[in-house]
Specification:
Helices cover about 10% and strands about 50% of the residues. By secondary structure, it is mostly beta strands. It has one domain: Beta Barrel (OB fold (Dihydrolipoamide Acetyltransferase, E2P)). The strands form 2 sheets. The chain has a 5-stranded mixed beta sheet. Strand 4 and strand 5 form a beta hairpin.
Length: about 150
């Protein structure tokens, strides 16, 4: 059985998420910072009358905060009934992989990314990290921003 993923870049790394979890891809728009939210929450934006928390994916992965420019995009995702935006550098492609092509992430001590990975997939000779959206966006503190 095939699974469709959308690939995108954060820094020099290639990530993917299941295409069924994506609501839309928007051009960068400035966020409104909120007090008392985790450092990786860039702020909120208005999504057609709904307050959308926006996660700085690089900061969430422990790689430092992004200084967004007009070239960045926000991927709007849906996990359950919650919508979250993810700041990424660029959206790359839509790819299909066999379900069994997803390999479990390696267990390495002290890695800040592995807890947020569903697995790894080799796509066109590149290693792609497939994100586990519920783990990435399911923070109780983040619910305060919604």
């Amino acid at each position: 059985m095939f699974r469709q993923l959308i690939t995108f870049q954060v820094g020099s790394q290639l990530f993917a998420i299941d295409i069924m979890a994506i609501r839309e891809i928007r051009a960068w728009s400035p966020t409104t910072r909120l007090p008392h939210v985790p450092d990786y929450v860039a702020g909120v934006v208005n999504l057609r009358g709904t307050v959308l928390p926006v996660i700085d994916l690089a900061a969430r992965l422990g790689w430092g905060r992004t200084d967004p420019t007009a070239r960045h995009v926000i991927i709007v995702t849906r996990v359950g009934e919650q919508f979250r935006g993810l700041i990424v550098d660029a959206v790359s492609d839509i790819v299909s992989i066999e379900e069994d092509a997803l390999q479990p992430p390696p267990t390495t001590g002290g890695d800040t990314v592995v807890p947020f990975l569903e697995g790894l997939a080799a796509i066109e000779e590149r290693m792609v990290m497939v994100l586990d959206l519920p783990a990435l966006t399911g923070d109780d503190e983040l619910a305060v921003a919604a």
